[in-house]
Amino acid sequence: MRADSRLSRMLHVLIHMDRHDGVATSETIAGMLNTNPVVVRRTMAGLRDQGYVRSEKGHGGGWTLARRLDDITLLDVYRALGDPPVFAIGPSVDQPDCLVEQAVNATLAQAMQAAEAVLLDRLGQASIADIARDFDRRFSALTGATAGRLVMEQG
């Protein structure tokens, strides 16, 4: 099963948007993520619906942040993406009447629920600004300079 990278990708985009002057078009974001602008619009719609970004249609339109990165947690973005499944593993449903399968599934379900609760708690404790500050530290350590504005590169 392929990993769902939408959370990671949207966090990446939101940090670029914060550091980018002006609007970010769906085409520019799509080029940066190596995907289709329709996918970007569909994914960003959830963020817009929750009030994290704004969109303007037409010439000169695009996406802008509606909130500061300090005011958006990783959990906020996760939920705006529709609470995608956290685990690729899941219960077996081959033999639902089998007591062994039922016991296995019950134990796995309890473990996954506990792990998911810990993960969601951690996502709620971190803001996107925390990630941006980590980027700034890494950039400064590598270059000796301040990161400043970023260019939203395609490809």
UniProtKB/TrEMBL annotation:
Transmembrane segments: none annotated. InterPro entries: Tscrpt_reg_Rrf2, WH-like_DNA-bd_sf, WH_DNA-bd_sf. This is Rrf2 family transcriptional regulator. It comes from Tistrella arctica.
